[in-house]
Design a protein that fits this description.
Blueprint: H1 2-16, E1 22-26, E2 35-39, H2 41-49, H3 55-68, E3 77-81, E4 88-95, E5 102-108, H4 118-135, E6 143-149, H5 157-164, H6 168-172, E7 174-181, E8 189-191, H7 197-209, E9 215-217, H8 225-231, E10 236-240, H9 262-279
Parallel strand pairs: 5-6, 5-7, 7-10, 8-9
Antiparallel strand pairs: 1-2, 3-4, 4-6, 8-10
Helix pairs in contact: 2-4, 3-4, 4-9, 5-8, 7-9
């Protein structure tokens, strides 16, 4: 019944939605010349700056963005997580691939009660829906799960709930997780000591090929949804855009749309699209999570 109500609400959202412009781009440096559909920079900015403040409303807004990106209403799913004082849900869409091996790409929906929560982490959640739009019509080897996690700020609750719900067989078919966190304040970064070697090295290879900026930085004492996947022995990477000297922007009144550099954000979005398509080419993504990444 609850899922039926959710679908009915999405029907209302779809009725009032207007199709968004898209730009068809070609991976000119890629050997298979795949075509993908990029959202415009204007579209990304609008979706960033109009996000609701209430966390439950953000869940519905993400569902709306998935529909605008081309998902059928019945393809937009919610997964309840256990937050005792208020209901919360992960919101996700599955893109089937040629195999049942899975790559997850996620950002978190929720934010703390200070600031707008645009940087942390609507930049990630919004990017997820637009990456889905870019590659949904491309034939891929892997099945992709595009997900907005709830309850990250309460202790990675959404990502842990997602993993708990997996069967042993499904868990074994999860080959990688790409976490997008706090994008666009600065140029693209990799949380290098919280990510796996092969995933980091591949990200740098793609960035170099596409002439996009990407640097490593080391962070201690922080958490992200990628941690949940690494704890489950699933290789994971966090790509962010928050230099250490800008950490004061998050969990503060400075967490607002005006502090997202739209060029940096769009570059991170382009990087993520190309990166996921590159990961899709790798047949075996199970790697040694204890090995240190190479220097770019």
């Amino acid at each position: 019944m609850k899922q039926s109500i959710f679908i009915a609400f999405l029907l209302c959202l779809l009725y009032f939605s207007i199709a968004s412009p898209q730009e068809t781009k070609q991976l000119t440096n890629s050997p298979n010349l795949l075509e993908y559909k990029l959202a415009s920079a204007t579209e990304l900015q609008e979706e960033l700056c109009t996000v609701p403040s209430d966390n439950s409303e953000r869940e519905l807004f993400m569902a709306k963005l998935f529909i605008q990106a081309g998902a059928k209403i019945q393809e937009v799913q919610k997964q309840a997580i256990d937050i005792s004082d208020k209901p919360a849900n992960n919101i996700y869409v599955v893109k089937p691939g040629k195999t049942q091996n899975i790559i997850v790409v996620g950002g978190h929906l929720d934010h703390v009660n200070v600031g707008q929560g645009v940087i942390d982490d609507w930049t990630g959640a919004c990017a997820v829906t637009n990456i889905y739009q870019a590659i949904k019509d491309i034939s891929t080897k892997h099945t992709f799960v595009f997900i907005g996690f709830a309850g990250e700020e309460r202790g990675l609750l959404g990502s842990r709930a997602y993993l708990r719900a997996l069967t042993k067989d499904s868990l074994s078919r999860h080959k990688a997780m790409v976490n997008l966190e706090c994008l666009g304040v600065g140029e693209s970064l990799v949380w290098v000591n919280g990510s796996d070697k092969e995933l980091v090295d591949t990200a740098h290879s793609v960035a170099k090929r596409e002439n996009l900026p990407l640097s490593n930085h080391t962070l201690n004492g922080v958490g992200a949804d990628s941690n949940s996947f690494r704890e489950a022995s699933i290789p994971a990477i966090t790509i962010d855009g928050l230099p250490v000297d800008k950490f004061s922007f998050i969990h503060s009144p400075q967490d607002k749309c005006e502090n997202v550099n739209q060029k940096f954000y769009y570059d991170s979005y382009r990087l993520a699209v190309n990166y996921l398509l590159e990961l899709d080419k790798i047949d075996n993504l199970l790697i040694n999570t204890n090995e240190q990444p190479s220097k770019p």
